[in-house]
């Protein structure tokens, strides 16, 4: 699997399968910005499709920033896509606004019947609840973390895992697994976090999976944002747990060598196998491209993956 655009950087990505085509959604921003750090506040959500997971066809962007004023009138960031029992697709995504100079993150939804044309839901905007989660200015972190919604169904209810930070503890290690639930994907209830601070400054692009009978939590954290777990070079982490909702052994999380790939994702393919992929976050010319990773937990670290 590989996606490289000559005129855009691409980074965080997520995928769904309609039974015929694979649909890859990803953050993208113009290389004309020159400084790659400027890309975050210029991000839109791109879209590509593939029959085999190898050859990708770029389509129109799925979601872009709204007109001001709106919670997402500056940029749109990472999310996930699910399908309800009626066949409607929902994309939950992160938005940042001009009003707070992009420093406060919120979660919204867009819906689609075909995964191509998306309509934003004006009535759904989720914010961090200060009873449990750190708000802007309450710690030393530069922004208010409430992003990367990962939505899945478990035990008859929809669950959302969220990149968040606790409102107490060492400010340098407050990252927790934020949690919200819904019966219908339209009305959400925010709950206390599913974890306690474990020395990570942030736990990005969270996912929960059960691989060969073992529940795992996969997340990303750059080495510079975890002083407690110093000495590691890779940004991919995996923690075993008791269920898809935890508890997980985050203090014992394994640092996985995925080379320069970051925001690594996992997905089970149609043939029942697992595959992983991420974007190149190194200093070389491949930065801003998406490609497969060879790591699949509990099936051998040398398992090559060629499909999404």
Automatic annotation (TrEMBL):
It comes from the Bacteria. GO terms for molecular function: hydrolase activity. Keywords: Glycosidase, Hydrolase. Pfam families: Glyco_hydro_32N. The keyword Mitochondrion does not apply. Signal peptide: none annotated. Gene3D superfamilies: Glycosyl hydrolase domain, family 43. InterPro entries: GH32_Enzymes, Glyco_hydro_32_N, Glyco_hydro_beta-prop_sf. Residues 21-279 form the Glycosyl hydrolase family 32 N-terminal domain. Belongs to the glycosyl hydrolase 32 family. This is Sucrose-6-phosphate hydrolase. It comes from Rhodococcus aetherivorans.
């Amino acid at each position: 699997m590989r996606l490289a655009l000559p005129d855009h950087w691409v980074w965080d990505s997520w995928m769904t399968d309609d039974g015929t085509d694979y649909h890859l959604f990803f953050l993208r921003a113009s290389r004309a910005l020159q400084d790659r750090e400027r890309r975050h506040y210029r991000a839109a959500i791109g879209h590509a499709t593939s029959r085999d997971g190898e050859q990708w066809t770029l389509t129109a962007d799925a979601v872009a920033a709204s007109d001001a004023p709106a919670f997402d009138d500056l940029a749109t960031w990472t999310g996930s896509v699910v399908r309800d029992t009626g066949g409607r697709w929902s994309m939950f995504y992160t938005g940042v606004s001009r009003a707070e100079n992009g420093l406060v993150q919120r979660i919204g939804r867009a819906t689609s019947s075909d995964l191509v044309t998306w309509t934003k839901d004006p009535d759904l905007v989720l914010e961090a609840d200060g009873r449990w989660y750190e708000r802007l200015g309450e710690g030393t972190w530069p922004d208010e973390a409430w992003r990367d919604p990962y939505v899945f169904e478990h035990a008859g209810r929809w669950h959302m895992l969220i990149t968040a930070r606790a409102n107490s503890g060492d400010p340098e290690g407050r990252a927790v697994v934020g949690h919200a639930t819904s019966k219908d994907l339209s009305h959400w209830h925010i709950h206390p976090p599913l974890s306690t601070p474990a020395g990570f400054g942030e736990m990005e692009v969270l996912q929960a999976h059960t691989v060969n009978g073992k529940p795992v939590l996969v997340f990303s954290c750059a080495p510079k944002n975890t002083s407690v777990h110093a000495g590691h070079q890779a940004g991919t982490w995996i923690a075993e747990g008791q269920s898809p909702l935890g508890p997980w052994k985050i203090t014992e999380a394994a640092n996985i060598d995925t080379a320069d790939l970051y925001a690594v994702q996992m997905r089970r393919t149609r043939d029942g196998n697992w595959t992983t992929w991420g974007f190149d976050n190194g200093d070389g010319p491949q930065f801003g491209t998406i490609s497969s990773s060879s790591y699949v937990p509990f099936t051998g670290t040398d398992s090559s993956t060629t499909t999404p």
